[in-house]
Amino acid sequence: MNLHVSPFTLRLKKPIQTARGPMDERVGFRVSFTADGVTGRGDAMPMASFGTETPEAALAALEKFDITTAPSTVEEIAVAIDQLSATPAARHAVECALLEHVAIRKGVLVATLLGPVLRSHFAVNALLEGDDASGLAASAEKAVQQGFKVVKLKVAARPLSVEAQRLLAVRRAVGPDVHIRIDANGGWSEATARSALRGLEALRLEVCEQPVGSHDVEGLRRLRHMAPCRIAADETMLLSGVLPRLLEKDPRAAADVIVLKPAALGGLVRSLHLAQQAHASGMGAYVTTLMDGPIARAAAAHLASVLPAADWAHGLSTVELFEGVQPDPFTPMGGEITLPQATGWGVP
């Protein structure tokens, strides 16, 4: 049994400036697995700059992948995809395709295969668009009108004075009650992050994702205990060598919350295990996409429904940022996503 792999490209309506540079499109592969007339689907959208394999490596792994028997359990899926451990985006896509195949055959949502569904709806944040302060303010106002209670924007690509102007414009646009989340993508030094977060204290930021480089666990730890906002570990989650130190139960933990990107972590089951470890250590977790396609967003939403706790909004309002993508059952309404009553992923 082989996979069917189809390349596709999604173009952003507006480029997003990150600490790693501008992003204007995402390139990936739709993966389908068919057996006994039942098809399961997954999206592989690697982002080498974030730490996954390249698109070329993902495609090579997907084309090489072979499976002799259709799995019928999550455990059998884990065995089947072990050969893809070096290519997390490809592994994620194949896991997703096999999970949906099993779920459809059982007549259930994929989420029920992962564990008890603890919530059927949950809050998500809006990712703001705009090059300057006025553009971000307009995007923030629109998000609030749509019902979002949490907004997020990328930082660390501009001088701190400019970042402060942009964030002030967003705070004025959303008012005092909406949470503002920032993502530095590891683009600040520890000294710059300390200066930035202290200087922005009056804006009452909710959380800063990955303020320093992914390997700098001790820098995260020091920032967490001086910053006026919560600290989230994102890119650091991809470094298996530092995860034990990051997730250890410690009153001086390096982060308040971990960010789960299933496409970068190698799948939903791996991500759920990390969330469970974090929960046991007193840390929170929320799910975000890797700016993936609709199937991957649906998969991430299924993961969000089974996490141990629901203290944080998830970063799943991203498919709407692409051109030509039609609304689907996972399109946020009123700042929330609701799991559909369906089988498989529940998305066309």
UniProtKB/TrEMBL annotation:
This protein's record includes keyword Metal-binding: yes
GO molecular function, one term: metal ion binding
SUPFAM superfamilies in alphabetical order: Enolase C-terminal domain-like, Enolase N-terminal domain-like
Domain of life the protein comes from: Bacteria
Pfam family, any one: MR_MLE_N
Residue intervals of the Mandelate racemase/muconate lactonizing enzyme C-terminal domain: 133-230
The enzyme's E.C. designation: 4.2.1.113
Cross-referenced SMART domains: MR_MLE
NCBIfam families: menC_gam_Gplu (TIGR01927)
PANTHER family, A to Z: O-SUCCINYLBENZOATE SYNTHASE (PTHR48073:SF2), O-SUCCINYLBENZOATE SYNTHASE-RELATED (PTHR48073)
Family note: Belongs to the mandelate racemase/muconate lactonizing enzyme family.
Name this polypeptide is given: o-succinylbenzoate synthase
Source organism of this protein record: Archangium gephyra
